[in-house]
Specification:
With 155 residues, the chain is of the alpha+beta class. It has 3 helices and 7 strands. A hairpin with a 6-residue loop joins strand 2 and strand 3. The radius of gyration is 16 Å and the shape is globular. The model has no long low-confidence stretch (mean pLDDT 88). The chain binds zinc ion (2 copies). The site of one zinc ion has 7 residues, from loops.
């Protein structure tokens, strides 16, 4: 964890600061379903790379086809990308852009235009999983979910 002297990772980026909380506390690196996030322990917002989020969705839905659904939703979202967000990217500190993502449910995420990642408010990660699961069913990749599952359930 604290091998700060070892230069073994490809890039030792700082985790950045929370774009939401007024005092912009440092984000903490965290791991959920083997995927790296940077999280704010005050507002529970999360910053994650778009590819990592894809991996998370795949792990959470438990079906590789969910990646196709996620890609589909992301492509659609990027085509109708919204206006500038009030929030800045934790990595490059440039203003992010609003990104309307998903259909059921729909949510507004913030996305760094330099490709650093997406900002998810508290609970939006679960919404992303839910909308991707629903989209997987829409695409006919798997049967529609018969029940509402808690995404925190153990595997
Ligand atoms: Zn925060
Ligand atoms: Zn950025």
């Amino acid at each position: 964890m604290s091998n700060s002297d070892e230069n073994d990772s490809d890039e030792s980026e700082p985790t950045g600061r929370c774009p939401v909380c007024p005092d912009h506390p440092d984000l903490e690196g965290l791991l959920d379903r083997d995927v790296e996030f940077r999280g704010c322990i005050t507002c529970f917002g999360l910053f994650v790379h778009a590819d990592a989020l894809s991996q998370y969705v795949c792990n959470a839905v438990g079906d590789e086809d969910a990646v196709t659904a996620y890609d589909d939703l992301l492509v659609t979202a990027l085509k109708k990308q919204g206006g500038p967000s009030k929030r800045v990217c934790p990595v490059c500190e440039e203003p992010m852009r609003r990104l309307g993502f998903g259909e059921a449910p729909f949510m507004i995420l913030d996305r760094c235009e330099n490709g650093h990642g997406l900002w998810l408010d508290k609970r939006e990660l679960k919404k992303v999983v839910r909308t991707c699961r629903a989209q997987t069913a829409v695409l006919g990749l798997m049967p529609p979910p018969g029940r509402e599952e808690d995404d925190d359930s153990v595997d």
